[in-house]
Amino acid sequence: MSNTSIVITSIFAPTEAVTKFAALPDYSLVVAGDKKSPADWQAAGVSYLDVSAQEALGFRLSEKLPFNHYGRKMMGYLYAIREGANVIVDTDDDNIPYDDWTFPALDGTFATAPADKGFVNIYKNFTSHHIWPRGYPLDLILDTEHNLKEEELQPQEAKIGIWQGLADSDPDVDAIYRLIDNTEIFFDKRDPIVLPEGTLCPFNSQNTLVRRELFPLLYLPAYVTFRFTDILRGLVAQPIMWVHGYRLGFTQATVLQVRNPHDYMKDFESEIPCYLHPNRVIAAVTRAISPDNTVGENLRRAYAELAKENIVSALEIELLELWLADIEALTN
User: Fold this and answer.
1) For residue 296, what are the CA distances in angstroms to 72, 183, 218, 240, 247?
2) Where are the beta strands (DSSP E) in the chain?
């Protein structure tokens, strides 16, 4: 995994997570600031991009990318790609890496789920507690048929496009879980699990590795609700990965999340599209894409179909076009 960049966006002074990531050898850390970030932000070992520095990069994306939004992280992605990143690790300023933080290889033989199972609750393979990832369809929460049985997992060769590492303590769950249970979770240690075509699970942007061939899929929609942003990205990505021969894999927790303060009811309101749209998103993306297209073109067609479904707006399509123009200029 040579030339690997870690990318974070933050509106806080350097956190423990930032300091630990910055100290890791063999990785480059990029932090994208925002208008709310401290004016004197600085940390050793970090390429910090304040708003002025982001604008000076000359990327088309900055023409329409909103401020005070998680999507500012995309300026960090583009900077990392321009600096030669072949792999990007997406994480947050409240995810503290363990001392053995790493990701598995991108190619190899891994325990693999059966194909065409639809949505599966991958958390249940890492804990016996009743918990589910943010974005998991609510009508499946009590449906144990959508839990992967250990005997179903078989070793298969796979080309991994994206690794999602789990997070201990306060993992990525929805507001419903936090409002009705909110038990602190430390996941079991185990080998990774890979999902084949037709079997999927929501994934986030908190401890997530993406290989160069799939960099277009890093696009974070900026005109949907905040809590839907990275979930929609992950839902869109999976059918596109399948048609290009890549797989999504999940690893044991390698970070400890000390979550920044949240209002759970505001999170719930922001998550409503996560509860309503997962199946519609997968259906729309699947019918829009083709293995004959590039990854970027499939992303464009997927969002055009989502716009027809009124899941995203015309503003999203405009921003996506700028992102794809920047990606194409950097990777061609």
Assistant:
1) 20, 40, 11, 10, 17
2) 4-9, 27-32, 46-49, 87-91, 95-97, 107-112, 118-119, 154-168, 193-195, 199-200, 207-211, 247-257
Across 119-154, b (16+ Cβ under 10 Å) vs e yields bbbbbbbbbeeebbbbbbbeebeeeeebbbeeeebe
CB contact at 8 A, 8 and 21: yes
Dihedral (Cα; 319, 106, 25, 41), 10-degree rounding? 20
Is 294 strand, coil or helix?
Answer: coil
How far is residue 299's CA from residue 303's CA, in Å, rounded to a whole number? 6
Residue percentage of the chain with pLDDT more than 90: 97
HSE-CB at 244 with a 13 A cutoff on CA atoms is 23
- Six token digits for residue 137: 């369809």
Instruction: Specify the pTM.
Output: 0.97
Q: Name residue, tokens 């960049």.
A: 5
Evaluate if residue 244 carries a pLDDT over 70: yes
Instruction: Give the pLDDT score at 1.
Output: 44
pLDDT tens digit sequence for 6-19: 999 999 999 999 99
Does residue 314 carry a pLDDT above 90? yes
User: What contacts 35, CB < 8 A, 6 or more positions away?
Assistant: 51, 67, 68
Are the C-beta atoms of 110 and 226 separated by less than 8 Å?
no
Q: How does DSSP classify residue 176?
A: H
